[in-house]
Amino acid sequence: MCGICGSVALASGPPGAEGVRAMLAELTHRGPDSEGLLETPRVAAGIRRLRVIDLRTGDQPIESEDGSVQVVFNGEIYNYRELRSELEGAGHRFGTRSDTEVLVHLWEDDGPGMLGRLDGMFAFCLHDRKTDEVFLARDRLGVKPLFYRESGGRLDFASEIRALLHAPGAPPDLDEQALVELFCLQYVPGERTPYRGVRKLLPGRYLHVREGRLEGRIWWEVPGGGEDSGLDEERVRGELPALLAAAVRKQTVSDVPLGMFLSGGIDSTVLLHLLSDGAARPVSTFSVGFEGESGDADASHARLVAARYGTRHHELRVRAGEAADWLPRLVDHLAMPVTDPALIPTALLSEFARREVTVALTGEGADEIFGGYRRYLLQARLSWLGRIPGLRHAARLRPLWALLPSRAGQALDALAERDPARNHFLWSATVDLGTARALFEDAAVAAAERSAVEAFRGRLGAGAGTSARLATDLSEWLPHDLLAKVDLASMAHSLEARVPYLDPAVVSWAARLPQRLRFARGATKVALREAFAGSIPAEVLRRPKRGFDLPLAAWIRGPLRSMAGDLLTGRAEDRLPSLRRGRAAAMLDLHLRGERDLGFPLFLLMSILLFLDRRGRA
Hints:
This protein has 28 helices and 17 strands. Strands 2-3-1-9-8-10 form a six-stranded antiparallel sheet. The protein has a six-stranded antiparallel sheet with strand order 4-5-6-7-11-12.
């Protein structure tokens, strides 16, 4: 696991290494073990390496036998041993034991077609000196990030946005509209970011520079839609445990200590069950709880599961007041707002785990592939209501629905909405739109909605069945929020996070699940529960879905109160002009007086305003 960055000459002269060194200095946390530079007339690239595989000879850049193909790489290739054997059989010679080296030889044989042979999480930049081609690629589901910007006749790229801000030339301007989208969804849909001109290389995409011309291509897309009616409970019990066990085996290959994050829910418990099976020593597990708060629930469940499996369990106890310290630190580190509050405990847990291990397995992806969110269940249960003509006509009464509790009104709006993409937006907006419209100008919220609907439409098309909805979340919510959160939080502390549920074979298999094996009798993730019934503790199977249960409401009335007052009751509208004057202060007052629980939207707005404040002081 590493951090990479670089500049590719498009219409300019050689990019030079000095600018790359400035970017590379911003990625030291991602790779504290070594630094490397690649410099040619076409490309200058850098690597900060965290040594995980081949500690002795695997430093980068790595090159082919004749030195004509060089690569800087972030991630892990889980099937590198099989690929190495095939490549050696074809006559290639290897100089290291690193998984990275297979990339240069695969390029020599297959060019861009090499990507289909890779099983792993990755983002890399490869330069072929013979053909003067530059090739940048990102893994199927976006486990590893890559950002880029075209400017001044160059293509600059980096593992984190903060590094791109130090590329040569004028820094990018902020996109205020993207900040409103962050408030509504917790992420910016599609390839855009909060900085104008800075784009995400989307999952399953690559960039190819030939003769100074930049082309982008899709090399993999999320599978969707093809439900297999023959996939029943018996096949689930026979096939899914074997698939997940194989994924865990692949993702536990490491030359450094490895452990896992444990919440005590079904996702992490299944991984622990598989990891413990046949293990030579107790598994190292890590959990976090907040002292004296409801946020301690995960830690207590994790404690019980750890005892059941005899792990070497490590529990981090966090004082609520530490959030006031961590929020500014994270905003500064990310050069972005913290719009997923779970980033705070994930960062704390990563720092804690790094004292013992260098690699940690996490449960990200299980909800998206198996159907773990309650809204999926509600959508499936209530979809028939949307076919009632009277309810569709009731859309005319939408202004009256504002009198209902905000989420109830938005759910009715979604049921009456016939456009699949807008329907999905109404279900998936993490802040109810009534609150968003109370805070921001109508035009800003409408633009945020259009951005999301446009991104969703390409996946949903004319239909909005369960499989299409899950595929949309796999394409948008998963990489842009959840995986981004885990990568940033873990790599801030030089910890490699791996995600077995996103193994390509598991994802492809889960895409064929019929709806009854996703939701039934009020339960979510039916296939996962069915596959491991009798294997993991029954109380875990019965436990409802919970994320990090952060006490945001109490934090804003307590340790974050002073910060909230400074940010929300001052000149907030001057920093974010689309804010309605006085609304942030009024909303904070309602919350502090206990009239409404507005902890979540207030936290998001505070984070955005804190980001603007600290960026202005930089």
